[in-house]
Amino acid sequence: MDLISLLRLTLTQHASDLHLSAGLVPILRIDGELQQTSLPVLSTEQIVSLFEPTLTDQQRQHFHQQLDLDLALDIQDLSRFRVHLFWQSRGVSAAIRCIPSEIFPLTHYDLAQTFEKICHSPHGLVLVTGPTGSGKSSTLAAMLEHINHTRHAHIISIEDPIEYLFQVKKCLIQQREILRHSHDFNAALYAALRQDPDIIFIGELRDTQTIRLALTAAETGHLVLASLHSASATKTINRVVDAFSASEKDSIRQLLAECLHAIIAQVLVKRKTGGRIAVHEVMLATPAVRNLIHENKINQLYSNLQTQSAIGMITLDQHLKQLTQQGIIEPAHARAVALYPQNF
């Protein structure tokens, strides 16, 4: 059993993820659900040997010291994959995410017109949020590719690892990977501010300092796109503010109110015809939204979202309702992710 064969199996089964875990058989995630394969049980030694030839000396040292590692694999004539290696109670495990070889155009998304308007902003913070495996990276890649085709701008991406690879079109795009091109996110972000960027893409806002730097970059006239783990657009506000100490919360809230441009929250829901579709909640930083954030009236943001569909805002439940009425998703699947499941 070699790595290429396992990755090829993942693609032929249309799986989004492959899990290799010591003491278990390989497991695939297909349409959001885990399915065991009929392959033999893997040991720690076998899993390590699968990835050993792909690692640099620096990556080996990082895995030995930190006990986990992020990396990307670009397999010729196959696809690109994001890999996370880590230790657990039975030994070593690997979580492998398939990255599509082609970037979806924004027209692939149900709310393409709203996303295009967001991409045309000259500055501000754009957050794409959702749980793990909800397609945040794909949405951000589609937005960056739209910018690449429609604007003359300098884009710097900071990722761990680099997922989608971009070809220069109208934009100058420079992709930097942590451990390969910079020591960490904070160092790369500090450096980015001295590299004359128009747009900064941050793969994930992981800690307080990264969030602080992203807010600073947005405040100083850059368009900053980033992903964050949060369940909804409104909860994202608290997620950002709560990352800071009590003494800083008020000042961070004011800074966020000033520099926020948009929040796109998303989940993936099964289609009736098979596969999954991205369902979104979109909050735009209108004067009313900025004022509510400024005054810490976060609980009133949802009702504001519900009434601003004319300018492109939408709640997750409203989008679910549209897709249900169009016969694209089942009401039962909508209920599973809706804020108010009784409405479905």
TrEMBL record:
Pfam families: T2SSE. Gene3D superfamilies: 3.30.450.90, P-loop containing nucleotide triphosphate hydrolases. Residues 11-306 form the Bacterial type II secretion system protein E domain. SUPFAM superfamilies: P-loop containing nucleoside triphosphate hydrolases (SSF52540). GO terms for molecular function: ATP binding; ATP hydrolysis activity. PANTHER family: TWITCHING MOTILITY PROTEIN PILT, TYPE IV PILUS RETRACTATION ATPASE PILT. Belongs to the GSP E family. This is Twitching motility protein PilT. It comes from Acinetobacter rudis CIP 110305.
